C-alpha cells in the first residue's frame, strides 16, 4: 500500500524549501536515453513541488509531474514553470497516461513511498518500448520486485550504485 504523507499545505511549503534539486542526476539519466533527440513525454511520479520536474523540460516536448498530494500539486503549479510542464493529482500506481505513451518515468526520492509492485506494473504499462524508468533515492536500501525480472532490476541498481 502506498504511504500518504506530505499532503498538508504547511508540510508542502517546508518540503519545497528543503528538497534537493538533482541537476547532475538528470544529466546522467538523459545520457542513458537512446540518443539526444527531443523526446515527447516525461512523467515525474511523486513530483512534490516540482523541483526535479522542471529539470526535464529542456529534453521533452511535454513533462507531467504527478503527486498523490493535492497540496504538493498546488505548490508546483504556483511556481513559474516552463510552458511544456503540467501537473496532475493522482496516485503513482494509477496514472492517466495511455499504454506505451511515455518516454521517461522518473520518481525522484519518492518511490520508497509507493506500492512498488503496483507502481512498477504501471510504469511498465505507460512506458513505450525502449522507454526509461529512473528511480532516484537517498538510499539503495530498496528491493525491486516485478514479474520474472526482479533479479535483473536489482542487479542493474547495484551496478549503477557501484559506478557512482
Automatic annotation (TrEMBL):
Family annotation (InterPro entries): Diverse_substrate_MTase, Methyltransf_11, SAM-dependent_MTases_sf
All residue ranges annotated as the Methyltransferase type domain in the record: 43-134
Gene Ontology MF, one: S-adenosylmethionine-dependent methyltransferase activity
The protein's name: Methyltransferase type 11 domain-containing protein
One Pfam family it belongs to: Methyltransf_11
Gene3D superfamilies in the record: Vaccinia Virus protein VP39
Position of the signal peptide: none
Organism: Poecilia latipinna (sailfin molly)
Amino acid at each position: 500500500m502506498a504511504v500518504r504523507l506530505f499532503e498538508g499545505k504547511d508540510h508542502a511549503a517546508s518540503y519545497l524549501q528543503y528538497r534537493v534539486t538533482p541537476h547532475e542526476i538528470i544529466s546522467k539519466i538523459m545520457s542513458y536515453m537512446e540518443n539526444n533527440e527531443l523526446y515527447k513525454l516525461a512523467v515525474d511520479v511523486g513530483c512534490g513541488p516540482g523541483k526535479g520536474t522542471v529539470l526535464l523540460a529542456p529534453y521533452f516536448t511535454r513533462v507531467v509531474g504527478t503527486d498523490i498530494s493535492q497540496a504538493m500539486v498546488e505548490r508546483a503549479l504556483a511556481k513559474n514553470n516552463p510552458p511544456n510542464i503540467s501537473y496532475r493529482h493522482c496516485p503513482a500506481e494509477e496514472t492517466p497516461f495511455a499504454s506505451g505513451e511515455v518516454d521517461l518515468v522518473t520518481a525522484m526520492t519518492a518511490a520508497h513511498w509507493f506500492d512498488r509492485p503496483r507502481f512498477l506494473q504501471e510504469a511498465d504499462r505507460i512506458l513505450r518500448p525502449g522507454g526509461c524508468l529512473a528511480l532516484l533515492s537517498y538510499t539503495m536500501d530498496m528491493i525491486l520486485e516485478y514479474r520474472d525480472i526482479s533479479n535483473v532490476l536489482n542487479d542493474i541498481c547495484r551496478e549503477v550504485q557501484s559506478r557512482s
